[in-house]
Amino acid sequence: xxxxxxxxxxxxxxxxxxxxxxxxxxxxxxxxxxxxxxxxxxxxxxxxxxxxxxxxxxxxxxxxxxxxxxxxxxxxxxxxxxxxxxxxxxxxxxxxxxxxxxxxxxxxxxxxxxxxxxxxxxxxxxxxxxxxxxxxxxxxxxxxxxxxxxxxxxxxxxxxxxxxxxxxxxxx
Length: 172
Prior knowledge:
The chain is α+β, with helices and mostly antiparallel strands.
């Protein structure tokens, strides 16, 4: 029989209360190992053999709150529950970290908490605007051959390429 879980422990649940089967974990911090207890809970461990998070069936519960661990657990939760998730327990920093990680990594998430969803969407828009700005800046840069070099003049169509002797750095 499953033990009741503390209400303050950080966890992700399916927003609709479904209890899906196990799901594969995607990178970044693939766990080094896992252990299944007699109740079927799967605890994933990092390289130092510290518990990262536990898949209890209806929830993914965190033992660590490091960013890579939260991202890996979030990816597992999204694979299990789909994009509609509810965060339980934890403090505001944990909740904000989850929204920020989802936005930063380009994960599609529908948080049950409207304020958290708004934070996630604003961050996604800011990232999108930043990428658009960087792309525009890259297009506006003049072509250069690298540090200390000037760009070669464009070759006209139909002209033979001009070959210059290669400087090998040796004296003759």
